[in-house]
TrEMBL record:
Catalyzed reactions per annotation: UTP + H2O = UMP + diphosphate + H(+); dTTP + H2O = dTMP + diphosphate + H(+)
InterPro entries for this protein: ITPase-like_fam, Maf-like
Organism annotation: Thermosediminibacter oceani (strain ATCC BAA-1034 / DSM 16646 / JW/IW-1228P)
List of catalytic residues: D70
Keyword field: Cytoplasm, Hydrolase, Nucleotide metabolism
PANTHER family: BIFUNCTIONAL DTTP/UTP PYROPHOSPHATASE/METHYLTRANSFERASE PROTEIN-RELATED (PTHR43213), BIFUNCTIONAL DTTP_UTP PYROPHOSPHATASE_METHYLTRANSFERASE PROTEIN-RELATED (PTHR43213:SF5)
Source organism, top-level taxon: Bacteria
Cofactor(s) it depends on: a divalent metal cation
Subcellular location, record wording: Cytoplasm
One GO CC term on file: cytoplasm
Name the UniProt record assigns to this protein: dTTP/UTP pyrophosphatase
């Protein structure tokens, strides 16, 4: 029998990306507060948050396979989450201007019936073009930065900020599909 898939996320991007795989799934957002970012290597911070989101939803999801994810942007070893306000977005974009940074998405998958869990992360590198103050202001006016880690969305008008990337594109948008496919296969989901 096909296993029930549950995406533990309120992110419309993650929903669209998972839908791209053509699998049936249900969405149950987690109640995890991401401001509780803990210390330690950034990739592990992303993994821990993904695990918390998946575990929170697994408690009330019934039988199935629960997927949690968390995306962070890292520059000079500082973690950039979602901007608090426009001024915060301005600071983030100014900091990223003309430079390479890293994007990590932690993913956690829980098989509720057996209690089996696996987690992992994906890393991508992103190079921003040098932005003028006017370009930063115009981008902020689009409203795009506000609900996104690092204050930009590569899948939207933010594409104009990104000169090049190395690694998985889907990881930057919020769900590394290749890695997720491998993790789901581990629990017997036939992704292809
Ligand atoms: C860098 C980048 C981030 N993002 C988004 C992906 C995530 O939705 C968001 C980072 O926030 P997250 O805390 O990872 O996720 P979320 O709060 O949106 O959803 P949930 O916790 O319920 O799963 O930033 C983009 O959409 N495009 C980008 O280029």
């Amino acid at each position: 029998m096909a296993q029930k898939l549950i995406l533990a996320s309120a992110s419309p991007r993650r929903r669209e990306l998972l839908a791209q795989l053509g699998l049936d799934f249900k969405v149950i957002p987690s109640g995890i507060d991401e401001t509780s970012l803990t210390a330690g290597p950034p990739e592990l911070v992303a993994v821990r948050l993904a695990e918390q989101k998946a575990a929170d939803v697994a408690m009330r999801a019934g039988e199935g396979i629960v997927i949690g994810a968390d995306t962070i942007v890292v520059v000079d070893d500082s973690i950039l989450g979602k901007p608090k306000d426009e001024n915060d977005a301005r600071k983030m974009l100014t900091r990223l201007s003309g430079r390479w940074h890293r994007v990590y998405t932690g993913i956690a998958v829980i098989h509720t019936a057996s209690g089996g869990k696996i987690s992992d992360y994906e890393e991508s590198r992103v190079k921003f073009k040098k932005l003028s103050p006017r370009e930063i202001e115009n981008y902020i006016k689009t409203g795009e930065p506000m609900d996104k880690a690092g204050g930009y969305g590569i899948q939207g008008k933010g594409a104009l900020l990104v000169e090049k990337i190395e690694g998985c594109y889907y990881n930057i948008v919020g769900l590394p599909l290749f890695k997720l496919g491998a993790m789901l296969s581990h629990f017997g989901v036939e992704v292809l």
